[in-house]
Design a protein that fits this description.
The protein is of the alpha/beta class. It has helices at about 25-40, 55-65, 115-125, and strands spanning about 10, 15-20, 45-50, 70-80, 85-95, 105-110, 130-140, 150-155, 160-165, 180. The strands form two sheets. It has a six-stranded mixed beta sheet with strand order 5-4-3-6-7-8. The protein has a four-stranded antiparallel beta sheet with strand order 1-2-10-9. Bound molecules: guanosine-5'-monophosphate and magnesium ion (MG) (2 copies).
């Protein structure tokens, strides 16, 4: 298990991980995303929809730099088992906010295949929002198979499994300030 944060190496169950993106780099990229959103939605009302569990840290830190009138809500979906996507997205907690005619920004920890996003898009589009965009801390362009790439991206990364800062391996490892990459 992860013993503490800010370590060079961590072991979670059978897998070894090494430091990949520092807390500082994460926070700087979040400030840039927040600044773009603040500019793009100036004077507009907006609803942020965070995707649990992975996006809880990103959502919390991003919101501290958003200076718009906004609502914050969460949905819960799951598609990953271990270190790969199952290909099936399950909705565990649906949308409880009224988003009709409102601007929606989906908050993701990471966009990988884009499967989760397509599912979320249709879930949200179904409720007639004014617009829908996606802000994600991390994006793996090489793994993306979707139609619409995310508009607001903190950092682009290669197609390798990572943990930390909200992202899990077997539900463990979410509680770190830095992000770690799997050692192969
Ligand atoms: P997608 O549906 O785009 O393939 O994957 C979306 C979800 O899978 C993400 O929101 C995240 O929860 C999980 N995921 C994708 N890539 C990674 C990764 O490298 N590490 C971890 N821990 N989860 C990932
Ligand atoms: Mg996620
Ligand atoms: Mg996961």
């Amino acid at each position: 298990f992860v013993e503490s944060t800010n370590l060079e190496k961590v072991q979670i169950k059978d897998k070894k991980f090494e430091l990949y993106i520092s807390e500082n780099e994460i926070q700087k990229s979040i400030q840039k995303v927040a600044a773009r959103i603040n500019t793009d939605y100036k004077g507009e009302e907006i609803i942020f929809v965070g995707v649990l569990n992975g996006a809880f840290m990103f959502a919390a830190d991003l919101m501290k730099d958003i200076n718009l009138e906004c609502e914050i809500s969460f949905v819960k979906v799951t598609s990953y088992k271990g270190t790969s996507s199952t290909g099936k997205v399950h909705e565990l907690i649906g949308l409880t906010t009224d988003i009709k005619d409102k601007h929606v920004v989906i908050l993701e920890d990471i966009v990988d295949s884009g499967l989760t996003l397509s599912k979320l898009y249709s879930m949200i589009d179904h409720n007639s929002p004014k617009s829908v965009e996606v802000a994600t801390l991390l994006y793996k362009p090489d793994a993306f198979k979707g139609k619409y790439p995310p508009k607001y991206v903190g950092l682009e990364i290669p197609n390798k499994f990572i943990v930390g800062y909200g992202l899990d391996y077997l539900e463990l490892g979410r509680n770190t300030r830095d992000i770690y990459q799997i050692k192969e």
